[in-house]
Fold these 2 entries.
Entry 1:
Amino acid sequence: MIRARNLSRSYGGANAPVRVLRGASLELYAGEAVAVIGPSGSGKSTLLNLLNGLMAPDEGELEILGRASSQLTDNDWAQLRRRHIATLFQDGNLIPTLMVARNIAFRAGLAGLAEHDGAALMERLDIAATAGRYPDQLSGGQRQRAALACAFAMQPKLILADEPTGSLDYATTQRVTPLFFDAIRERDVGALIVTHNPELAERCDRILELREGALRPWDSALSS
Ligand SMILES: Nc1ncnc2c1ncn2[C@@H]1O[C@H](COP(=O)(O)OP(=O)(O)O)[C@@H](O)[C@H]1O
Ligand SMILES: [Mg+2]
């Protein structure tokens, strides 16, 4: 689903560039969940935005869902994001002027689905009672679960998630985590999950650490 080779990306223009990614490589296969860990500011969100085409790498090669990024136009990327690549941003996943149920229906519709399982998803994520509420009427944890429901409802091939349990309390994380993996395994979705949550990371097939701009297999023996 993802084949990335030596991705580099800087911020700050030509005069004083800050090199955030310096040769990050990774592969992700269908049905696989890979966790990305790394300190704040190490470039995790930047990496996700290269993989969903919202930013372009300065250097490196990227193949996404079998297509070379060098061949993808802005329209191609937009189409991929509508239909096949769900990004769970750290915030701002929901359209503020739409109720939760409408947000879900809208996302499924954008993905070209005539029907969706939004009601069942809300039930499973324990947010059925929020269906008729607007995003600003939800708690942080409810918003995060509504964003998950939107992502699953579009039946994506690839999920890129930035701290999907970041604003969930312990009990809710315990309940939502298995649902997250069920959705991945049931549909052979590939998932790249940025997380600080050890339990979420350990349920993934592999853990990669982003450090000094590169991705390396995380060695728990080294860090303990
Ligand atoms: N739009 C931007 N302009 C300038 N610097 C940025 C921008 N976005 C991120 N950065 C910088 O790049 C580094 C990595 O950011 P980010 O990818 O958000 O890291 P993480 O998600 O791991 O916390 C940080 O030092 C951040 O300040
Ligand atoms: Mg981030």
Note: The chain has eight helices and ten strands.
Entry 2:
Amino acid sequence: MRVKRNILLVLVAAMLSRCTPATGEMDIFIKNGIVYDGIDSLPKLVSIGIKGDRIVYVGNQEKEDIPTRRTIDAQGLIVAPGFIDTHTHADVELGSPSESDNKPFLFQGITTVVVGNDGSSLFPISKYSKIYEDQGIGTNVIFLVGQGTIRERVMGKVDRKATPDEVLSMQDLVKQEMDAGAFGMSTGLFYAPGSYATTQEVISLAKVVSKNHGIYDTHLRDEGCYSIGLVAAVEEAVEIGEKANIPIHISHIKCLGREVWKRSDSIIKIVEEANKRGVEVTANQYPYEASATGLQAAVVPRWAESGGKDSLFIRYSDPNLKPRILEGTRQNIELRGGPEKLLIVNSEYEAYEGKTLGELSESMELNPNEAVFEILKKGYARVASFSIDPYDIENFMQQEWVVTGSDGNTGHPRKYGAFPRKYKKYVKGGTIKLSDFINRSTSKTAQILRIPDRGAIQVGNYADIIIFNPETFGDRADYQNPFQLSEGLEYSIINGKISVENGGYTEKLNGRILKKE
Ligand SMILES: [Zn+2]
């Protein structure tokens, strides 16, 4: 009898602890909203209570007698977990006092960004964590250690195989960065100097990451047909996952360039088969038809830039090498769809911005491949490259293992608009369901990155919550005006503190550095 009563008491206590706040009044109470919790496919009409930095109550909307300091009436609005952006280039901005608010991402509904993508990370992480922490940041941040950065530190920018000693040194540095809190390692195998690494070298480093329970995030060696080809590049990623026993996350999955358009079906098959064999393979994607990268990275042959930009121009001035460099560049421009498909979106020489390579080469009275080097002489230039087919975008987007990632970098509208654009164009347009968009921008992403206690509206989780207007939520940035904040976000709550209120920024830096335990 007594035992039974005790069990009953435990049950009642368990029910109470799930439904009511642990103690006293709540700091924030969100009521009347249409709640997508990040996991379920149907919305719920529930209220949410926040105390400190955690969600302490999710329950019946009718019940309004819970004492609270602050009530948010979300009538007619969608309440969701804050978005987690798996792929950004916000590293430098977050360290700059004028940009550490991370507004371009914050106003998309993003509450956590990943940095250190594409093989390139700030080094050492311990130093930059401290800078971010001391100064304050507008969103949460997760670090990845970049394989290209580590290789460059040990070997410079050279195009050669690593010696066994160099591999050991790289492994030590990867371990050091994982110990500093990185969630995994990124590679940019398309870019120098990461591209100079063999598959085996990458596996050696990935094994260290695996031991530290991190993930492997990759910009594939080839997203089109520049070197080994898209299919072989995906197979390489799967091989790394298999041999290093590590989850694989493919960044900004796409079929880049006319030659590989509509190949998404075969890529999906490779991923599905790997998943069936027990190799975890997932991907992120941005919803745009143009990719963006450095002009040099986009069209200059890799062998020609070994050693860096100075070495490139030394080779370019060598009459024996120049024709080969120009021919390789010409071919790469064609693979990108021709000079009209390459739009300069950001340049140290501002007059180039907003013009295509075709327009610039005409005004310079040069061939497009020669114009590339004139442009590069004036400094760094970034291009939007219109080389992705809508069929592949939608096909990848519909896979349950593909989550949203902005790849936000300066000059491409995706930095300001990726998540709201996906909602406006692809959810409202009927490509994917609203719950799939939300779940694959929140809890699924947290699961892929192994982030504990975030990504879902659940009691006990950190209170990273957004509230947006289903009618107006959308992107405003485009290729002509890439620096327009998105609209329709009414509230953003990060770690239980309000960062966006009634559509306006509260000037509060509520983000934290999330460290891998
Ligand atoms: Zn990338």
Note: Residues 118, 219, 251-252, 407 surround zinc ion (CB under 6 Å).
